[in-house]
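Sequence of DNA replication and repair protein RecF (Alkalispirochaeta americana).
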Amino acid sequence: MGFDWVRLFNFRNLGDGKIDIAAPQVFLIGENGQGKSNFLESLYYLSYGGSFRTRHDQEVCRHGEDQMALDGFFTSREDRFRMEVRYEESRKTLHRDGKTIQDRKDMVSLIPTVVFRHGDMDFVSGSPEKQRWFVDQTLSMNYPLYIDDLRRYRKILKNRNQLLKSHDYEMISVYDYHLAEAGLSLQRRREDVLRSFNHVFSQEFRYIAGLSEDLTIEYQASWKGCKTIEDVLEILAKNHARERVLRTTTSGPHRDKFFFRYGDRDFLSLASTGQVRLVSLILRVAQARFFLKETGRLPLLLLDDVLLELDGLRRDRFISRLPPAEQRLFTFLPGNIFRDYRTEETMVYTISDGRFQRE
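Predicted 3D structure, token representation.
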């Protein structure tokens, strides 16, 4: 199960050609800068139609080129299909079995993918925007209709902000109602899912970290305590004068915050960089396990050089708590650590200067 093969053309520094990865577990071994992470990025691209590194498709084209193409065949317990991504003449096209995919939203449930990477620390100690992104991604994986709710809210928010910037206040009350309606829907979804997610997350934390107290995510909604549209309208009305000065909407789900609580204490005030790193990995384990629990489907797992910073005990616990998956792909620096987790079903490639050599 998973990707049988991937064909690459002009994707970052990777050599053009077809790579066989038809194995439950694939190890990619190489020094930094040789293309290991780029290959994981190519699989993510085929899964979601975009990168986990950049929003600009031009940036994934090989240096000096203005086009690229990816092609892969994916097998799951439910289906078998071919995915294609093309970028040329500043335009991206997506295809499944030769048929055009008009909306990237339709890809979310095709190849559900969880990527573990160093940048995930931002979900723990980064900006509220980064934390909202993680929560929204978790919701979107499990409930694709949430994407429609999120898009609707963002469109209303954009239009309302345009009114504030242009000093056109006559329509503000109309947009207030629509903003309250769409925003409350997002808030309720976030509240409901975090209650369930925290149960999975705290359980994984206790085992992997080896600590007795729970670590949970506390949701601080911008419209805290609001249960009805009328409650929200009251807040929006109170903010009108201030928003006219600032020319932007100052409350709503786009201003929600999340805090990590270790028992009754603020986790970040206690945590070392290593502990933040560990929690970011546990977040991804919980995200993958929560997806399996909610949908009954197996995810694709991409793990980018995440084991090196863990001590042996936590590394073993982390590996043991990865959920069943369609396929797992790990990147490693050269050395002996990867041999501890290699099985008879593991396919191993060495990558050097974008070229793949199978062991």
